[in-house]
Write a structure and sequence with these properties.
The protein is of the alpha/beta class. 24% of the residues lie in helices and 19% in strands. This is VWFA domain-containing protein.
Length: 298
């Protein structure tokens, strides 16, 4: 029998059906179907088996992809060769069992540290203004309640310190935290200094993310290379955002080694590229509270 699927089924020369035609078995109650291919006709409630080489015979001569790609083996034969089933693993059960899974360890809220470049070159191309505007907007509007944020500024070794300690975000403290990000950029560039300050804040913390925003080549030690191993050993992810085209290439390697992200913001950018970077950081936030879920195992 042939039937249509929304588009009329037509027959061409020599009675050959076109691509709109589909085979449909007799759906009367007296039709007995004892075997099937996977997901062929789910509306039939008595289709629950795969063709095999024994009781539910597989047609090795049929011009099907199963025969073409699986050396004419039946569906069940291919399945049973997988390591999940060899050696009589996972034998068939006679009835469904009710199994309850309970999540016993909740993914914690995220501990973020913004590591912000306040070196003198950040005054070029209004970079410090862009840094301030984007960082403040993220704190005020985007980072989720319950997550924690600290802010570190760096320039040279003497110009590196905390602007704000690790603070759990609530609706009442967003504005005051955002306002500590100022526009006073001066001095050299010691990116490793800022990262080490962030590691001090995050010591002993889990689910931690260091977001580094910088524009310049490093000109003071410790360098990114010198602290790369320390970041990886801490278990924290590093996300780097580079302004312009002169930022250290080691920023990308730092992110790569810690399963983080790397972004570049062109000086002609009006904030879109920076917004994308801060939005991506939110991927590390837990999506929702875990629940106990009843799962029926067939």
């Amino acid at each position: 029998d042939r039937t249509t699927l929304n588009i009329p089924c037509k027959y061409g020369h020599y009675g050959k059906p076109d691509a709109n035609c589909r085979f449909q078995p007799d759906l009367e109650d007296n039709q007995e179907v004892e075997s099937s291919i996977l997901n062929y006709l789910p509306l039939r409630n008595n289709i629950s088996l795969f063709c095999d080489n024994d009781e539910h015979h597989h047609n090795i001569a049929a011009p099907t992809k199963q025969n073409a790609f699986c050396n004419r083996q039946s569906t069940w034969s291919v399945i049973m060769q997988h390591q999940d089933f060899t050696g009589n693993r996972n034998p068939q059960i006679e009835k469904a069992e009710q199994v309850q899974f309970q999540i016993v360890k909740q993914v914690s809220d995220v501990n973020f540290v913004l590591v912000l470049d306040y070196s003198g070159s950040m005054n070029d191309e209004q970079r410090i203004q862009k840094l301030q505007a984007t960082s403040q907007s993220w704190i005020r509007n985007d980072v989720g309640d319950g997550n924690s944020v600290a802010i570190v500024r760096f320039s040279n070794k003497d110009g590196t310190y905390q602007l704000a300690p690790l603070t759990k975000i609530t609706s009442s403290n967003r504005e005051s935290l955002a306002n500590v990000i100022d526009l006073k950029a001066t001095g050299g560039t010691c990116i490793g200094c800022g990262i080490r300050e962030a590691l001090k804040i995050l010591q002993g913390k889990i689910n931690c993310v260091i977001l580094v925003l910088t524009d310049g080549e490093e000109n003071e030690s410790p360098t990114i290379q010198e602290v790369n191993g320390e970041v990886k050993a801490s278990g924290c992810r590093a996300v780097s955002v580079a302004f312009g085209d002169k930022a250290s290439q080691d920023l990308e390697l730092l992110a790569l080694n810690t399963d983080g992200y790397t972004f570049y913001a062109n000086d002609n950018d009006v904030g879109i590229e920076l917004d994308d970077a801060f939005t991506a950081v939110l991927d590390y936030e837990p999506e929702q509270d875990p629940l106990s879920i009843n799962i029926k195992v067939l």
